């Protein structure tokens, strides 16, 4: 069953009688079980407890203070390197920034950052090719090898250090909660996907749109940080990184579809079309397909509407992603002569149902 209205999407995502069904959740549940499952795959009280315990790492106030210096310093390094070269790949730059910030939050700081970025990129961007038993086995073995590599070089050293000296990060928290090394690994992969892969795509998409429209770029650079956040959220409303969210009903439900009541049978899979919900005129207002940072929003709704999800599973890293994009793009877009030399190619990741943007080449025009 598909839902494409804002009202219906919000009601389902906030309903206590649905469970996570996206991102291979049911496959994970079959092999891992509910005990210490990654937070993305938990529901009910265990999920609420874990989200409450880790909220201190993602709160907007914490992001704006504790992580701001890291975001600014890393952005400065990336932009300086790009200016010296005169040309670069935006998707590589955004990945490096996303890895640096997410690694600090999670606690993956005991290995080479650039090499960790390569390992994660290979893991999350691994293509699904071929059919049949041999192809499936090959993909499974490659996945296990990439996971083992990530554990050996990145997660294991971080765990070892934090068992001796706990810090204020996610891995230290998980150790304190009694998680095993394997469980910490799966949690790190979850945060890696959410905090690194999706933020990377968001930054590339936002830069693409701002480089396409000179008026929007000028407004972005002339405004204050809140203005920049508003523009970024409007871009994200139109271009949500994850286009489909999935839930499974645990009992018979009746929800408001926006066009009247909709019956959902117990155990039904519900697919929420985020892009369509974000363009619902009842939420986005007139001309919902246009990029308009000044549009009015419904009461108590994010400017990006459903792009970070809603309800218990709303993305905890929303503030992190927005601050990264706002700070990095504010520095990058001030480079004289900056232009998009090659637009990115877009593909869809079959696991996240989100887009991936590769090959976005930016360059500096020679100054006369």
Automatic annotation (TrEMBL):
<dbReference type="GO" id="GO:0020037">
    <property type="term" value="F:heme binding"/>
</dbReference>
<keyword id="KW-0408">Iron</keyword>
<protein>
    <submittedName>
        <fullName>Putative cytochrome P450</fullName>
    </submittedName>
</protein>
<dbReference type="InterPro" id="IPR017972">
    <property type="entry name" value="Cyt_P450_CS"/>
</dbReference>
<dbReference type="GO" id="GO:0016705">
    <property type="term" value="F:oxidoreductase activity, acting on paired donors, with incorporation or reduction of molecular oxygen"/>
</dbReference>
<keyword id="KW-0479">Metal-binding</keyword>
<dbReference type="InterPro" id="IPR001128">
    <property type="entry name" value="Cyt_P450"/>
</dbReference>
<dbReference type="GO" id="GO:0005506">
    <property type="term" value="F:iron ion binding"/>
</dbReference>
<keyword id="KW-0503">Monooxygenase</keyword>
<dbReference type="InterPro" id="IPR002397">
    <property type="entry name" value="Cyt_P450_B"/>
</dbReference>
<keyword id="KW-0349">Heme</keyword>
<dbReference type="InterPro" id="IPR036396">
    <property type="entry name" value="Cyt_P450_sf"/>
</dbReference>
<comment type="similarity">
    <text>Belongs to the cytochrome P450 family.</text>
</comment>
<keyword id="KW-0560">Oxidoreductase</keyword>
<dbReference type="Pfam" id="PF00067">
    <property type="entry name" value="p450"/>
</dbReference>
<dbReference type="GO" id="GO:0004497">
    <property type="term" value="F:monooxygenase activity"/>
</dbReference>
């Amino acid at each position: 069953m598909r839902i494409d209205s804002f009202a219906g999407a919000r009601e389902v995502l906030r309903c206590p009688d649905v469970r996570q069904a996206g991102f291979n959740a049911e496959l994970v549940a079959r092999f891992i079980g509910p005990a210490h499952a990654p937070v993305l795959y938990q529901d009910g009280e265990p999920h609420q407890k874990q989200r409450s315990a880790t909220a201190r790492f993602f709160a907007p106030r914490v992001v704006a203070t504790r992580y701001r210096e890291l975001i600014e310093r890393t952005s400065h390094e990336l932009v300086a390197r790009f200016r010296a070269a005169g040309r670069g790949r935006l998707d590589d730059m955004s990945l490096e920034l996303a890895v640096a910030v997410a690694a600090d939050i999670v606690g993956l700081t005991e290995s080479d950052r650039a090499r960790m970025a390569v390992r994660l990129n290979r893991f999350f961007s691994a293509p699904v090719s071929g059919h049949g038993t041999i192809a499936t086995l090959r993909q499974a073995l490659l996945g296990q090898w990439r996971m083992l590599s990530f554990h050996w070089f990145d997660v294991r050293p971080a765990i070892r250090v934090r068992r001796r000296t706990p810090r204020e990060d996610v891995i230290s928290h998980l150790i304190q909660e009694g998680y095993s090394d394997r469980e910490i690994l799966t949690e790190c992969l979850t945060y890696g996907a959410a905090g690194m892969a999706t933020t990377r795509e968001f930054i590339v998409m936002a830069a693409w749109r701002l480089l396409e429209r000179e008026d929007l770029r000028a407004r972005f650079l002339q405004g204050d940080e809140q203005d920049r956040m508003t523009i970024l959220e409007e871009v994200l409303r139109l271009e949500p990184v994850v286009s489909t969210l999935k839930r499974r009903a645990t009992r018979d439900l009746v929800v408001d579809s926006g066009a009247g009541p909709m019956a959902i049978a117990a155990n039904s899979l519900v697919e929420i079309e985020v892009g369509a919900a974000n363009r619902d005129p009842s939420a986005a207002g007139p001309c919902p397909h246009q990029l308009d940072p000044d549009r009015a929003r419904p009461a108590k709704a994010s400017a990006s509407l459903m792009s970070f999800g809603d309800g218990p599973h709303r993305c905890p890293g929303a503030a992190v992603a927005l601050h990264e994009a706002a700070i990095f793009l504010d520095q990058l877009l001030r480079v004289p002569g900056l232009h998009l030399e090659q637009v990115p190619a877009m593909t869809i990741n079959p696991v996240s149902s989100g887009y991936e943007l590769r090959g976005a080449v930016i360059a500096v025009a020679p100054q006369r």
